User: Fold these one by one.
Assistant:
Number 1:
Amino acid sequence: MMEVMFLLCWTAIFVGAVFWVTRKVVSRNRIYLLILVNLFFLAGVFYLFPLWVVGL
Amino acid sequence: MSSLNVSFILEITRRDFTERFAGSVLGSLWAVIWPLVNLFIYIVIFGKIMGARLPGTSEMNAYGIYLAAGLIPWTAFSGTINRSVSVFIDKKHIITKVNTSLPSLLVYICLSESITYLISMTVFILILFFQGHDFHRGMILLPFLYYLQQLFAMAVGLFAAVLNVFVRDVREITGVTLQLWFWFTPIVYVADILPGVVHKLIVYNPMYILVQSYQRIFVFNDYPPFHALVLLTVLTHAMLLFSFVLFRFLEKDIRDFL
């Protein structure tokens, strides 16, 4: 259950960040910022998931 | 550059999927029949009839599951790259008429391949469920693994698509590279049978990390290699950034060439 909660919350933060970037950032820099947000999201999943949830 | 148009992407994805089976009596049902036949071959023919065994496991159809766990993601990955390479040339008629963002054409390929992947994976999981397979908790990471895999495919695909506009041989080179890449990735064989030098080199193969993750979850009931996945995430985004910067640099020339 904790795994699901972590992944749902993390994904919700990511979706929120993507929504903010697509609404507020000018088109020219948007894609670079989206790549950065994506990097934090996926690296966060694969780094924090074993650290916080699995305890590896 | 025009912005990414979501409704345009969804529309061409829908059209691409329906056109694939246009004119056939069974229509979109073929999208379910194909994965069923493939999984039947992997699990029943290889696992049960030919009696192929996976070293270190006692399960009867472990090899079939091992094969399917590697082939389903590989099919989506190679399909995305293969179709991305020539997307700018194939969709020339759209690009020259409609003011569209060129990278969005890669997103539609990615989405189209995702539908096939989703159907195959659902059928695979259902077969395993009815066989009484013991599912590992790492299963919840599958969407994230797939997301990373497709981002990597898009990064490679965009790079190849940009080059292919100027040098048409890139399409053939990509096909040959993907064929070699497939056999350099332990999908139909286990990594342990490889000679020492190749075994040491294979850890630098990004697809090995992804395929190994799927195999660990489905076959060995284990979590994926997290440290390797973090490194792959960084590599994927660096590649994505490089491909996009190259695309931005050459965008005007690409449109002129088309």
Number 2:
Amino acid sequence: MSTLREALGAVWRTPRGRAGMGFLAFLALLALLGPLALPEPFRQFDLEELANAAPSVDHPFGTDQLSRDVLSRVVSGARISLAVAALAVGLSVTLGAAVGLVAGYWGGVLDAVLMRLVDGALAVPRLFLLLLVLSVPDRVPLAALILLIGTTGWFATSRLVRAEVLRLREETFVRAAEALGASRRRVIFRHLLVNAAGPLLVAATLGVGDVILLEAGLSFLGLGVQPPTPSWGGMILDGRPVLEAAPWVSVFPGAAIILTVLATNLVGDALRDAFDPRGA
Amino acid sequence: MRRWLVRRTLQAALTLLIALVLLFLLIHILPGDPLAREGEHALTPEQTEALRARYGLDRPLFGQLAAFLGGLAKGDLGVSIQYGRPVTELLLERLPATALLGGTVLLLNFVLGVWLGVRQAVRKDSREDRWITTLSLAGYATPSFWLGIVLAGFVGVRWRLLPPAGMRDPLGGGTVATAVDILRHLILPALTLSIVSIAGTMRYQRAALLEVLRLPYIVTARAKGLPESMVIWRHAWRNALFPVLTLFGLWLPILVSGSVFVESVFAWPGLGSLAIGAVGNRDYPLLVGAAVLVAAVVVLGTWLSDVAYAVLDPRVRTS
Amino acid sequence: MTRVLHVRDLRVSFPAPDGHRFHPVDGVSFSLDRGETLALVGESGCGKSLTSLALLRLVPPPGRVDAGSTIRLGDTDVLSLEGEALRRIRGRRIGMIFQDPMTSLNPVFTVGDQIAEGVRAHLPVTKAQARERALALLQEVGIPDPAGRLDAYPHQLSGGMRQRVMIAIALAAEPEILVADEPTTALDVTVQAQILEVLDQLRRARGMAVLLITHDLGIVAGRADRVAVMYAGQIVEEAPTLELFAHPSHPYTQGLFASVPRISGPVERLTPIGGTVPSPTAFPSGCRFRPRCPQAFDKSELPPDLLAVGPDHRMRCWLAEGRGGRD
């Protein structure tokens, strides 16, 4: 899709978009390289004198109370957080687009019913839904967590896509395609979905930031990513008891979250500006 | 207008009903027996049976739903497993604290967020605008629980400037002293939640005002020779208010969620910390009760903001 | 004849993406006398709206009026005014009505409010007095049942009535000059005539000068005393109305007349002007009409000055040299 490339190009041209994209690319690289990027991938935590060490050349982010290098843990946490966010958002966007498309295109009773359901679902804050579900089992496997976050996040997207479809349906080019006898499937995919892709992409990008915050919060409460799998939220929880003595244990994962979500928001904003026909 | 009001209210009621049904269904499709407990919470078979009967878990699904809704209509949300007291009672007990916190944050958002948003719209693209935008984006990106523990840890514990936890000192003074005490305890949690949420309000207002400033009737207002402040606040902002009102309808769920973390971190005795406790102890009636209350608040909030919109927009009011 | 408005060498510039500035209004000069109507005619993109906005210093940023331009309102140099002084001429000495009354009126205030606001901005009156003024103005612009309409909202009125309200707003502070930017374009044909009639009556009753901006030659005849035709940011022909209609001299003007369909007379083919209006970012060199002009010749490569072709009749075309000073 050339518009996608154009939009990304437009984002790259703005200084803030560039900063955001750059940071995300860097983070993705770190995540991909994984263990290779870690200064101390498989450190055994048995050197007591290194516990709660302040940041130094050896340990740029310091160590935690179990003598683990905080930088390594932050990088490991990045892999998890990004993966969870990307997958969950992917799921949300797919579900939301599907429902929104169906509701907007077929209209009528189906639309009314679907949208009423969405309204009802939106009334309960996502966090509460997740708290309810996550309180039942003892441990939630990562895959289940991703599934849960994904299936609770599509409601707003469906509204968005529906609105786009409704708007686009009335556009002349869609009428023209239908008049030319284009098959329904063709109309849906080629015309409607492609044009709704812009706002969808924006929603997805911003959604990634939201999920990172959500997952971190859940992990902080002990309900999200379970130890020993590293997660930023979990690290912040770990660092709480030693906050006075070793603030870096909590501060750096928090800073990582801030930077990452900031980056996604900058990119999302820039994308939104790029797709907005009215421009600046 | 009256017809619209009736329609909108019915719509709200329907939305709430659907939310309740969805919640009900959710609980019932969850794996695991809500009554099964291990270790110290283990129940004897007799106790389990008794609870099962009490909660009507032995009835068919539809019957349970009817019982659930029927109970709700009477204000009966069941009994908390943790506390052994009616859920409704517990919720009402904790509601004021959350209302105080949420209300304060909402007020701050409205006053500061709106003012900053308008200000930044007028100064669009200036250096100050760019900085404040980035700062507010950073605020939005900050996890509320992290900010909470940092503020509590440093301002509260290390520097001892403000109390880091709770809502008031157990050793109370007179009413005024108590009020002041509560306010002191309110500062950090309210600050935390505000920092995180004000960014959204500010940016929304800024965007809304920029949209309106482009419109032809703003040129008309200037061409009349009106002072610029009047053009901005009377003509432009009055129209840019609407998206912000809608925003409050959307903000409510976010504020509610945010308050869960903040209340937890600051041990603020509100609904959020109650819910967290319920999660840990698998107190489903309490958890569901809290979810129901929150859903009701959200539906009420969106209804209110829609009504406010209708009242303020003559195009809706007079149709 | 007292001259109320004098515009000389008006240039409005905007920044282009590459950093240069381009000039959608490029050296426009005209003047208005008390009580007369000057029509500024041209197609969209010729710069006429920007010209009118410049008079009130309402050019939208990042556009600006360039140095070297002169706008004089009687004795006042409009371009040197700032803040409060500038605010005082808007509405009070020049009133302006815009093209689309639906979007030019604030939807959340009543029409009475909006008119009264215009009165109170400049005249020391109480709220009640301003309201009375608003009522009187509504009557003057010919709105039926003015008392009932005073508290109506813009969306409750028809297009024609909204435009009358706009006129009332523009006249609220009793300006000497009324600038009407395409006042009838957004209205139905039948309503157009009514609005123009209202404008005429008001002009005569108050002795105002009117700058009528339009792309429609049809509404110019019979309404304007003088006409100035704009093309590509410049005035290319100006003359008293009758003279212009009798002897359209600039090839562009001739093209405009030829492309207007006539109801009376034998049905001929419409002859549109070939080509398209040039973008302000890329005006042709030399005579700007040259690429589309059927009479272009070698001298057209030089930008022409405004030359006389008849009594009080000038055009920006080298062809005038052959004809200069006709009977």
